[in-house]
Every structure is written in structure tokens, then in C-alpha cells.
Specification:
single chain, about 325 residues, mainly alpha, 2 domains
Length: about 325
Amino acid sequence: MLKKVHIESLLLCVFIPSRTSLRSIALFMASLSFFVGIIGNIISLLLFVSPIKTFWGVVKKKSTENYKGVPYITTLLSTSLWTFYGLIKPDILVVSVNGVGAISQFIYVTLFLIYAPKDTKVTMAKLAAILNVGFLGAVIVVALLAIHGNLRITIVGILCAALTIGMYAAPLSAMRRVIKTKSVEYMPFLLSFFLFLNGGVWSAYAVLVKDFYIGVPNAVGFVLGSAQLILYLIYKNKSASAKAMKAIEEDGSVHRNKDDEDDGDDEGNLKNRSLSKGNSLPKPSVNREHSLQKITKTLSSSNYELQCSSWANEAGIENGKLDNP
């Protein structure tokens, strides 16, 4: 009996970790999640600063041209809500990245409203007021005053996850266009690659910190980013060959136009030469007072012009053979 109890205690010591080992595992997981979160912050910041070049051009031209303001307005709402979520949870890494994102998107929206045409400016200003002032303010007030405890985190987390899934699903139209046109011209590789990385890193972070609301939308983003990269690999060569064929066709049309112009010039030259030849012929005269020298000169000039005409025809044929094989 004593031996049995001794063996069971030994087994418990081997298979059940002590408090010290559990504390070490918890510290390791916390350190790993913080490290992964830092990487996620860096990738997300790269995505947030990517429109700087676009808006620098907007400021220089003082026009938004054909750019749309809706993506920046919705991204401002999403980053603001995620910042609020990170504050009530709390999660410093979520607050830091989305706080910077909200500031950058606010700057983009402000610049867009400054340089947009009047009609677009009014429409986008109304949309920004409804979403980023009215809706966001209502969510914050209701969450702080009417909802308490875990329910507050649940409701805000669901809203954040829904907005993030919508943002990740936005490139689906670009993917459909790639499949339809068999060209990756309108789906930049770097953007797809960073969306893939962003979704993957934040999905890993969500697993480590056990946050369902961060994990689900970023897992969707990871899957969609992977699909975009696969499409890019499939249609990259087809897109390049299509561009090459288009360039060849354009080059051929240019050559044909030049040939047509050259042919037209040759025909014009021949007509001019024939007219000049007709003008150079001696007028018939009733009086037969022409010297032998004048007759010889006229015949020699006619032969020379005929030779020029034949050389022009031969040159035209040779050019035609070279340009149109």
C-alpha cells in the first residue's frame, strides 16, 4: 500500500507541473505574445503610412482627382473603435497601433475634405460626421454608461471584428477583376503581401492572448491575403504576356501607320514626278524647227525620270518586305 502511494506521488510530480514551472510558462507566453504584438504593430504601421505618397501628390496638385474618401473614413472608424476596445480590455499593444492608425487616418480624411471637389466634399463630410462622430460617440457613451463588465468588451469586440472583416473583404472586388481580366495590374503585390502578413501575425497574437475578437477577423484576413497571393502567382505570367502582346500590337500598328504614310509619300512623289515629267515634255509644235540637241536632251531627261520612278517603286517594294514580313 505504501509503495502504491509512493509511486502515485512520483507520477504526480513528473506529469503535473509545479507552480514555478507554470509561472515560467506564463512568463514565456507573455513575452512571446508581446514580441508577436510588436511585429504586428510594425506591419500595421507600414499599412497605415502607405497612403502618404498618395496624399503628398494630392497636396501638391491640390486635387483628390479620382481617389475615394470612403476607405479612409471607415478605417478611421475601425481604428478608433479598436483603440477604445484596447482601453477597456486593457491591451497596450492594441491601443498603441490603433491609436497611431486613428491619428493617421484622421489626417488623411482632413486632407481629403480640404482638396476634394465641392460636391464630394459635402458628401464625405456628412459620412464622416455620421460614422466618426455620431456612431462612434454613441458606441462609447452607451458602452461606458449602460453596459458593464464583460458584456461591454463583448459588444465592442463584435463591432470591431465586424468592421475589420469588412475591411479585409474589400479587396474581393479586385480579386474578381483579376480572375475576369487575367491580369494582376489592379492588385498590387506589396499590399496583398502586407495584408497577408498582418492577418497572420495578429492571428498568432490572438491565439497567444486568447482573444476571440482579434483572432476571427485577422484569420479571415490571413485567408483572403493568401488567396490574393495565390492569384498573383497564377496570373502574373499571363499578365506579363498580355502586356507584351499589347506592346507588340501597338508597335506593329505604329509600323503600319508609318508604312502607310511612307506609301502615301511614295505615291505622292510618283504623282509629282509624273506631273513634272508631263510638264517637262516638249509641247508639240507645227513648226519643225527643233534641233537634234533639244530632242536628245528631252529623251534623256525622260529616261532619267523613268529610271527614278522604277527605283522608287523598287524601294517601296523593299520597304514593304522589311516592314511587313
